[in-house]
TrEMBL record:
Keywords assigned: Amino-acid biosynthesis, ATP-binding, Kinase, Nucleotide-binding, Threonine biosynthesis, Transferase
Lineage: Bacteria, Pseudomonadati, Pseudomonadota, Gammaproteobacteria, Oceanospirillales
Enzyme class: transferase
Protein species of origin: Halomonas mongoliensis
Coiled coil: none
Protein name, UniProt field: Homoserine kinase
Length: 319
């Protein structure tokens, strides 16, 4: 159960009294999640989600509040946090930072169809187009500046072949991304896997879990999406899903020549980013709670596939 800080109905009822959200009817802990405590809260007016933040810095949370407010204002399907009668969204509950959100409709797509892929590509392109103007800033915590020092921590746990693979890849990424290369910048979701979306049939009902949100290369975000949404179990890319996402995305925000040039390398770097972060959880910094870490092997397989088979051709943008 991924509820690390239990709450009583009395605590939640008192918390709700600050908002114009109705009176508590039911409270249910949500088993999904690996970092924060999440609850479904039903009032006599609406369905809500209450999140207690178990990790991270309190000072970073206003960035996420402002980002979600901004994206909601621009008609993105995100859960804009509720603000109390004084206009404040971020509070403390049971000693932890707390936010209250509307509960968005839909379910996670396990095997997304092409219509769902197109909806995701369209929403991400829309988000990246408007996020370039978001005034908040939070450095990307998982870019090349993180890969360089952190990959040394896991090398001892890898086979000699994988040690060479990881060291060689990081050295290449440093050459490509660590210099004067300029790619379009904006605010990223940072972790837009399938389980961070909600669908009602083919309709995208919500993009959730923005707590890896940051500022950086928009292409980084897009590569994370393709490596999850358009990848087969053997690591190879699914051409139909790949093209559905990227065609819809580029109808909103066409890729630049520089982005097209480094696209294959960005797919590789974001695959290694998740291989490394999962290795760190398994071997170096296990979760504070009794949770099963994600399998690092999945993204090693994806990285090997990107190296062996390369990237698929990017869809062209109609003039």
């Amino acid at each position: 159960m991924a509820v690390f800080t239990p709450l009583t109905e009395t605590q939640v009822a008192d918390f709700l009294a600050r908002f114009d959200a109705g009176s508590l009817v039911s409270l249910e802990g949500v088993p999904a999640g690996t970092e924060n405590s999440t609850f479904f809260v039903t009032t006599d007016q609406r369905a809500l989600v209450l999140t207690l933040f178990e990790q991270g810095e309190f000072g970073e949370l206003p960035f996420f509040v402002d980002l979600l407010d901004y994206l909601e204002e621009h008609r993105l399907p995100v859960p804009g946090p509720l603000h109390d009668r004084e206009g404040v969204a971020l509070h403390r509950l049971a000693g932890k930072p707390a936010l209250l959100f509307p509960r968005l409709p839909g379910r996670h797509p396990r095997d997304p169809n092409l219509a769902q892929c197109r909806a995701l590509g369209d929403a991400l392109g829309h988000m990246h187009k408007v996020s370039k103007h978001f005034p908040g800033h939070r450095p990307n915590p998982r870019d090349i500046n993180w890969l360089l020092p952190m990959h040394h921590k896991v090398l001892v746990y890898l086979s000699p072949q994988d040690q060479t693979l990881m060291k060689d890849e990081v050295e290449i990424y440093q050459e490509v991304f660590g210099g004067s290369l300029e790619l379009p910048q904006g605010t990223l979701h940072g972790d837009l896997f399938r389980d961070n979306t909600l669908y009602e049939g083919d309709r995208l009902g919500g993009i959730i879990d923005f707590y890896n949100g940051c500022t950086g290369d928009l292409l980084f975000d897009l590569a994370i999406v393709i490596n999850d949404w358009a990848t087969e179990p053997d690591g190879r890319l699914n051409a139909e899903r790949h093209d559905a996402i990227l065609t819809a995305y580029q109808a909103r925000r066409p890729l630049t020549d520089a982005e097209r040039q480094v696209w294959p390398m960005m797919l590789r770097m974001t695959a290694l980013r998740y291989w490394l972060s999962r290795l760190l959880v398994v071997y170096v910094d296990p979760p504070a709670h009794d949770l099963t870490p994600h399998d690092p092997e999945q993204f090693r397989t994806i990285l090997r596939a990107r190296l062996e088979h390369g990237a698929l051709p990017l869809p062209e943008v109609n003039a």
